[in-house]
Structures are given as C-alpha cells and as structure tokens.
Specification:
The protein is α/β, with parallel strands linked by helices. It has two domains: 14-81, Hypothetical PUA domain-like, domain 1 (Ribosomal Protein L25, Chain P), CATH 2.40.240.20; 88-247, Alpha/beta knot. The protein is built from seven helices and twelve strands. It has helices spanning 31-40, 99-110, 130-143, 158-163, 186-192, 209-217, 233-247; strands at 14-16, 26-29, 48-52, 57-66, 71-81, 88-92, 114-119, 151-152, 156-157, 170-174, 197-201, 221-224. Strands 6, 7, 8, 9, 10, 11 and 12 form a seven-stranded parallel β-sheet that branches. A five-stranded mixed β-sheet has the order 1-3-4-5-2. Helix 2 (99-110) packs parallel to helix 7.
C-alpha cells in the first residue's frame, strides 16, 4: 500500500489529461507526460499526482506501477469539482512572435471562457499554431490550479465574427481614441451592460477606420477606454480582462 500523503498534497505534480477521469480509475501514461514525471520530477512508486480533465474536476492519484518509459496511476478520489467560469470571451488579433501565446496563457490564468483569434486588416501575426497555443493554455492551467480551460476557436475573419455575433452578448472593444472625448469609462460601461460579454482587442496599430465603423454599427458593441496611455495589444488584452473580472466577473464573490 502506498503511503497516504497529506491531502491534498500541494507539492504534487499536476497534469491535465484529455480523458474523463473517475474515482478508482487506472491511467497509463507514456510519451511527454511520462517523461515529465519520470525524468523531470523523478517521481517514485506511491508518490501522489494531481490530475484534472476540464470535464469533471480535479483528482488525487498515486503511482501504482513504475516503468522505464511509462507508468500507471491509480485515482484515489476527487479533490475538487470543475470550477464555474465567468461568461467572458476574449477576441483578439494575433500579434508578432510569441506575444499571442502569452496573451492566451494569461487569459487562461485570469479565467476567460473562450479565446477567439481574429484576423483584422492590420493583423501581422496570421500564423496561428493551435497546438502550441493550446499547450501554453494547458501549462498555465496546470501551474495555477485551474480545473477548467478556455475553449480555443480557429482564426476567424473580422467580418465573419461580426456577422455571426450573438444577439445577447455585449462586445466591449478598446478604442484608444475615445479617451480624448471624455467618454468610454469602462467602469460605467460595466454597470450599464451586465450579462454575457466579450472583449475585442485589435492588432498592433489598432483597427482601421472601416473596422471601427463596422464595430460601432453592431448594436451589441460597447466602446471603452483603457485610460490615457496607449497600450500594446497584449497589455490591453490583460488590462481589459482584469477590469471586467473586477467589475462583472468572479473577483468579488458575494
């Protein structure tokens, strides 16, 4: 019998598995998961491992069988149910290099429900790699004790996004020019617009004039300011998510 660890063990390795987990199940791991536990974490037989599946919650398991390149985990019990996630989407234009991966990682940590890359007129980072993006999201969720992952949508054309926009979802979009008019308070916008929401962040260089007109013509759109300073696209995305979470999300539980 394996030694009973402190429950739950905060220092135990934590992994996301794309299978539905259950009490008493045996899970065989090989490939990258096994390499991580065996070679990086130097795990031993009987050691605890925490698992989550983005379906049912988080579980505590222990190493039942230890091989050279694989291992079998036995699930001992559920530690947490899958967390509820605020109904917030992030729609953002891809940007250069690895900055969009960083946006997806931080959006996962902050608790968005869906991430939608959007191709705009000035988008420069069109080459989205979904597998790599998803890997960054999973790593963030593993490290930050998340039990839920955002869904990841395929790269969507700006015009298609607007044409298919849900009638019951507010679209907050950051417009750096609106601050000059004294309008667009994000705080006031959140008070006036409750319910399902999304945040739209443009590319480096912002939206084109034509895109700005198209967004404003959408009845569900809500132009907002992110303050007097011009922000990079990645900073703007995280700032906007943080403001929404503080005003309408779950940062202030009842």
């Amino acid at each position: 019998m394996p030694a009973t660890p402190a429950y739950p063990p905060h220092s135990a390795p934590r992994l996301y598995l794309d299978v539905e987990l259950a009490d008493g199940a045996e899970i065989r791991l090989d490939g990258s998961h096994a390499h991580y536990l065996l070679k990086v974490m130097r795990i031993k037989q009987g050691d605890p491992v925490k698992l989550f599946d983005d379906r049912t919650g988080e579980y505590l398991a222990h190493v039942a069988v230890l091989g050279k390149r694989d291992l079998i985990l036995m699930i001992d019990g559920k530690t947490r149910e899958r967390e509820s996630v605020p109904d917030l989407w992030l729609c953002a234009a891809p940007i250069k290099k690895d900055r969009f991966n960083w946006i997806a990682e931080k959006a996962t940590e902050l608790g968005v429900d869906r991430i939608m890359p959007v191709q705009t007129a000035r988008t420069q980072g069109q080459a989205i790699k979904p597998e790599k993006l998803r890997a960054h999201m999973i790593e963030a969720a593993e490290q930050c004790e998340r039990t839920a992952l955002p869904s990841l949508e395929p790269l969507t054309k700006f015009t298609d996004m607007l044409e298919q926009w849900p009638a019951d979802r507010h679209l907050f979009f950051a417009d750096e020019r609106i601050h000059e008019t004294g309008e667009g308070s994000f705080r006031k916008a959140l008070v006036a617009h409750d319910g399902p929401a999304a945040i739209l962040i443009g590319p480096e260089g912002g939206f084109s004039d034509a895109e700005n007109e198209m967004i404003r013509a959408l009845p569900q759109s809500v132009p907002v300011s992110l303050g007097p300073r011009i922000l990079r696209a990645d900073t703007a995305a995280i700032a906007a998510i943080s403001l929404w979470m503080a005003g309408r999300g779950d940062w202030n539980p009842a």
